[in-house]
Give the backbone structure.
Amino acid sequence: MLETTLFYIFSFVAIVSAILVITQRNVVHSAIFLAATLLAVAGIFLTLHAEFLAGVQVIVYVGGILVLFVFVIMLIALNRTEVERQFNRQWTLAAITAAVLVAEFAYVIFRGKETFPLPSATAAAPAIAVTGNSQLVGVSLYTNYLLPFEIASILLLVAIVGAVVLSKKKTAED
Amino acid sequence: MVPTHYYLILGAALFTIGVIGVLTRRNIMIILMSIELMMNAVNINLMAFSDRLQQVTGQVFAIFVITVAAAEAAVGLGIVIAMFKNKETMNINEIDLMKW
């Protein structure tokens, strides 16, 4: 019962603030509403017994990526962008794409319910809860998924180098 | 217990909102934020199946999605800053150097 209530509260917050993210005029307000969405999604993770990922979501998304966003917004704040037109002329295209997406999702979700058998939700008292979520994720990450893990670290290294190269000042020698 | 497809519907809704944001907004910062929204929608689906199938694989994949999101944000914001230095704008309609 509590889980259901929490799910409804968190998903309401997530969807409303996601809509506000893409409709706000002021970019800083968008960033704040994005923070609300991300925190609500972290709450959703908690209702799904993914405690470790909820923590990672708060630390990495809200504490890292979003702060980076706000930092850049403050760095290149343009008052002019608030006055000019906010939306481009692709409303019809966007509406068509969204309609197709919604139709696809609806089809897959409601057809897939029959063809994709899930174990009955109440039956399995989780083995996950016994050992602890972080430990299970860690063991899986460092055994079965060691190679993807290393590739992810290389990806992060490339991203660091790329970001530095992109935003570095041109010197006389260049 | 919340049925699994409620989570899928939530993910689908967030993803669609992200798509609409990418397609309709003209401010490049908000487009990047919409991309983050879409990645979160994917993570919700991964989490839902990870919980329902009692397998931790979905959560490991969500970690990789978050890694990619972090890398994408770093490089994307680097591009935004470099672009702003050249063009003094955040409006994507004015950035048309590579348009034919």
Remarks:
- The longest helix of chain B spans residues 57-87.
- Chain B touches chain A through 71 residues (CB under 8 Å).
